[in-house]
User: Fold this.
Amino acid sequence: MFDLSQFPELALKQLIGIGEIAHGSSGLHEIEFQLIQAAILNLETREIGIEAPSNIVARLNQLLSYSNNSPLTRESLSELYPIWRSDKLLAGLQWIYDYNHDKDNRDDQVSLFGYDVRLPLTEIQQLAEWTNARPELKSSLGQFEKITLAELRALEMLSHEHKRDVALREFNEILFSVDVILKQKNLPKSIAEIAVRIQSWATVFRLWAISGMERAYAERDRLMAEQILKRSRNKEQKGPVLILAHLNHLLFNNLSVRNSKPHVVAGPVMGNYLHKELSNRYSLIGLFPNEIEISNPGTGKVESFKSSSKSFESSLGAIGEGARIFRVKNLPDQFNGWITVGDVEPSNSPLLQTYSSYDLRLMDQLDFVLAVDQVRSEKLF
Assistant:
C-alpha cells in the first residue's frame, strides 16, 4: 500500500481521478486498490466511483455494506464489464468488505457508485413496474417488461456494428416512451430520475447509430461527468471522492493531448467538465507502466506491451519492480517531454487502441504520475 500522507495537498481535494492507460489489466487493478486503501486510511475517502453502470455497482455496493453477511465471490462481479472481472479487483473489494464489517467502522462505511450511463436494466424494470400499475400508460413502456441484460448489450452492439436502422428504430421508440412518462403531471421525483437515466442511455446510443462513435462518446462523457459531480457536491463527505477510469476520460486539457482516441478529439471529455466546475479541487493521478500485460476479454489471451520510450525506461530503472508516485512538477529530468505509451509492441494487436501519447510537460494535465516498471496480469473471468 502507498503512503499518501506524504502528499497533504490531496486531502484538500474534492475529487481525485485514478487514470489507467489501458483497461483489462489485473495488475493495474491491484495498484489501483493499493491507492484506494491509502486514500481510505490517509485521506478519509469514503466514496469510490467505477466506470460501470450505476445499477450494477449499486448491487455490488450492497454486498460490501455492514448489513450484508454473504461472502464476496467471483459471481459478485459477474454483471460488471469484462474489463473489471479480475481476482485482483475482487481482492481489493474484499479489503473494503472487511473494513466495512469492522465494528468500529459500522457508522463510517466506504461505498462504491457507478457513473456510466450504459445498460440501465434496473431502471427499465422499475419504470415498467410503475407504468404497468397505470392502465393509461401501460402501452407506452410495455416493450420493456421482459427486457434482459443480454438484450440491452445486443441493442448497444447493433447501434455501432451492424443493422443500425434496427437499433435506431428501437432507440427512437424508447425515447418516445420515456418522453410520454416525463410529461405526466405530478410525476414522482424518483420515477423522473429513473426516466432521465434511461433517456440519457438511449440518447448516447441513438447518436452512435446516427453519427458514429465520436459524437456518442462525447455525449457519454458529458453524462458521466454529471453523475460524478452530483457525488462530489456532497457537503458531508469526509475526504475526496475517488474515480477509477481510463485516463482518456479524466484528462481535461484535450487540445494539448496527442491522442488516438477519437472522442478526445471530437469534443470535451469527462475531465473537461470535472475541471471546469472543480478547478484545483480536482486532482489526477496517471498510472504509467513501462511494460504491461493485458487480458483480452474477447479471446481470453494475455498480451504483453512495452513502451518504446528510452527516457521512460531509464527513469524506471532506478525503481525496479516496485511502483513510485511522483509529483509532476518534480519529475526526474528523464521524464521531461513525451512519454509515448502508444508506440508499443505487438503493433498489430487490437488492444493497441487503448494506448495513447501523453505530454507530461503539461503541468495542468496531471498532478501525479505513478510509474511502475512491469505490470503483470492474470486472465479475466
Q: What stands out?
A: Residues 189-211 form the longest helix (23 residues).
